[in-house]
Structure formats: C-alpha cells, structure tokens
Amino acid sequence: MHGYEFYVDPSRCIGCQSCVKACEECDTHRGTSMVNFDFIDRGGTTASAAYVCWHCEEPTCAMACPTDAIKKGDDGIVQSSLKSRCIGCSNCVLACPFGIPKIFPEYEQMMKCDMCYDRTSEGKRPMCATVCPSQALAYVRPEEIAGRREKPTNAFQFGNQKVITRVHMMVPAGTDSVSLDVLDYMWEESDVAFAQPQ
Amino acid sequence: MSLLRSPSREPLWKEEFSVFTSDERYVTRRQFAKFLTLASLGMFVGSLWVLAKAYFAKTPSFPSVEVGEAGEIPVRGVKLFTYPTPKDHCILIRTGEDEYVAYSQKCTHLSCAVYFSAKDDRLECPCHQGFFSVRDGSVLQGPPPRPLPKITLESNGATLLAVGVMES
User: Fold this and answer.
1) What total of structural domains would you count in chain B?
2) From the candidates A55, A74, A75, A80, which should be mutated to test the interface with B, based on the most B CB atoms within 10 A?
C-alpha cells in the first residue's frame, strides 16, 4: 500500500521479539500479539523466525470459513474475522498452510495479523516493521529491497497447492519459489523433537 | 473488480458469499433486473390480495343488546355498559327527557376511559385533557385524533337497545 511492500527475512531474525511486543501495543488488539514467532529448533540452534500474515491472493483461511467471516479487501489485505460472524470453529487455523490464524477461545473468535490496517492504510508502517532492529520484518519500497543479497519471492508451493502472497519472503538469489511438502517432514523416529528430515 | 466483467462461471453461492469484499457487494445487471421483476411481481400480487380481501370481506354485524330501561337514569345522568363485547366499555348519557346518546368510553388518543362532565356538557378524558362533544362525539380539544365511536341506539317500547357501532 502507498508503494510499500512487506518483506520477511527469517535469516535476519535475531529473536529479540521486539515485533511481538510492538504488536501488543496496537489498540485494536491491545495485549495480544498477532506476530507469529518461532524458535526453529530450540535445542540445537539459536535461530528464530518472526513472521506476519502473508495475505494470500486466494486466502485459504477465508475459503475454509463456513460463516464467511474472513474477508479480503480491494487493497489485498486479509482482515481478521468479523466478530459478528465468527463462530470460533478453528477451520481457518487448520486450513492456513502458514499457520497464521490464532483462535481465542475466550472471545470465540479468530484474530490474525491485518498488517496494522489502521496504520498501513494511511501510509504508515506496521508496528512490527518499525521496531525490527535487523529488518527481518521490513516494510519498504521494492527498489530498497532490491539492494539486498536475498531476493524476494511471493510464490509458495505446499504439496499440490500453489499460493501467491502479498507479503514477500526473502530467499537465496535464484530461487523462484518456496516449496514445502508435508510428506517430506513425516518420518518414523522415536524422538521427533530432535529428528531432522532426510 | 471491474464493473464490466463478464458473467462468471462460479456457482451462485460462491459469488454471493465471496471471500473478496468487492465481489460480495457486486450486483450484475441481470441480478438487478431479476430483482426488479420479482419485486414488482410481488407488489402486484400483494395489491391483488388486498383487493380480494376487501372484496370478499363481510360487513360487520352487531348484536342487539339491552342497555337499560327508559327513565332508569335521570336527565343528564349516565349509565355504563359494555357493547358489543364485554370488553368494550361504553357510556350512555341521557341528554334530554327522551334523548339518549351512547359512545365508546375508550378515548381515541390513548384509550383512557372518558367520563361525562354535566357541568361543562362534554365528555372528558382525564389523562390528557381531551374533550369530546356530547352531541356527536367530535373532538372539542386536546390530543385525540378521531371522534369517539358512537353507539347506535334504538328504543323498543320502554327498553333501550344498542344495535351498532358507528366509527367515523
């Protein structure tokens, strides 16, 4: 929006969780962070990854919603569920290939990152991107990101499902899309927490 | 989403409950024409229904009920009775030696019971000071929008009978 795009680069994440805290500051969901933050393999590495909603062109969460509670506007932002419609069924949580939607049983509602719609729709940057010290979450113009060594892509392949997103992932140069097949990560090991895919 | 897009091949429910906000509110010309046609058809059928109802409606019939004996109440005296059902309270007023009038006691404003004021020669509603004429039940002052319904009286020898209600 307003010429800016969102870029996520997990390789830059230092695990400070500033984005998580900044997101909690937002008045539309104060105290609750919509940033998805993961430690990749806590026992083996300090690597971490913070990411926001990818705002798919054809949002899987919205397509799985039985009550038509998740909407995508003309500006390409997939909004949180509408309170009056959401029945808290978790279909979207299970459907999203990125694991973005969060269900809040106390509200019986799903809430997710809406890219700080109150800010970005007015040309301001999202809270998480303003505080990220390593710019793992960056909300900049495309020409600014072109200077980086990693290149942005917004094509993801999950098994047979191809997903085009609004938010870009920074990948090694020469990589067109991020491909992931769940079957690759299913293996027979007794201790899956420390197991690695073959 | 363009206004001039071609008709989509998606099933209707997917268009009606689209994921995209703009598609959800999009109305094709065909949908709009269909709506206009069906709405006017509905209004036409509704008008026919109202017409048929009015045509076949029965004229209301009222029972003949004894109200009292002539001379039972003094001149400028009143008697309360119910007509045509026990829930419809009415007031009978003897205005002259052989003159009787009767009205529904329910004020046409907010249904308070009116009483006869012999001093001012009028029917008065105490709730909002609505006054009615004794002669024909018309509104003299105050908020009532319509005159009091008049009870048609007939005399059968010495007996007074209520035979109808005249709404105006």
Assistant:
1) 2
2) A74
Tell me: do B29 and B84 sit in the same domain. Answer: no
From chain A, the residues in CB contact with B17 under 8 A are 68
The reported pLDDT for the residue numbered B2 is: 46
Would you say residue B7 lies in a domain?
no
pLDDT value at residue A170: 94
CATH of domain A57-112: 3.30.70.20
CATH number reported for the structural domain that contains residue B114 in this entry: 2.102.10.10
As to burial, measured by CB atoms within 10 angstroms (0-12 exposed, 13-18 middle, 19+ buried), residue A53 is buried
Q: Are residues B159 and B76 in the same domain?
A: yes
Q: B49 and B110 share a domain?
A: no
Q: Show residues of chain A in contact with B19, CB under 8 Å.
A: 58-59, 62-63, 70-72
pLDDT (tens digit per residue) in A123-176: 999 999 999 999 999 999 999 999 999 999 999 999 889 999 999 999 998 888
Q: Is residue B45 over pLDDT 70?
A: yes
What is the model's pTM?
0.61
From chain B, the residues in CB contact with A74 under 8 A are 1, 20-22
pLDDT in tens, B94-141: 998 889 999 999 999 999 999 999 899 999 999 999 999 999 999 999
Domain that holds residue B30: 12-56
Residue ranges of chain A whose pLDDT lies below 50: none
**Do B52 and B80 fall within a single domain?**
no
Where are the domains positioned within chain A? 57-112
Q: How far is B34 from chain A (nearest CA, A)?
A: 25
Residue B73 lies in a domain: yes
